[in-house]
Design brief:
With about 90 residues, the protein is α+β, with helices and mostly antiparallel strands. The protein has one domain (about 5-85). Helices cover about 45% and strands about 15% of the residues. Helix 2 links the parallel strand 1 and strand 2. The N and C termini lie far apart (about 35 Å).
Length: about 90
Amino acid sequence: MAIHIRRRELIVTFVSTVAAWPLAARAQQSAMPVAGFLNSGSAAEWAHLVAAFNGGLNELGYAEGKSVAVEYRWAQNQIDRLPELAAPH
């Protein structure tokens, strides 16, 4: 399966991911580290990449829900929602 990502989508995804890091920094005060995953799309359309992300975590010795928590936030293709979703809840 070929993955075609337009330049704008790639930039938005990168910026979205970088914007999520403050969430992770605040959440690391808990016993389990928390990583933030912010994306402009939907969980369904990015499921294959989330699976790859989790595979990478496993390769590094982390297991989602056991040694690291991942907080996913999806804008459902509504880019204007990203600032709201990046804000701490």
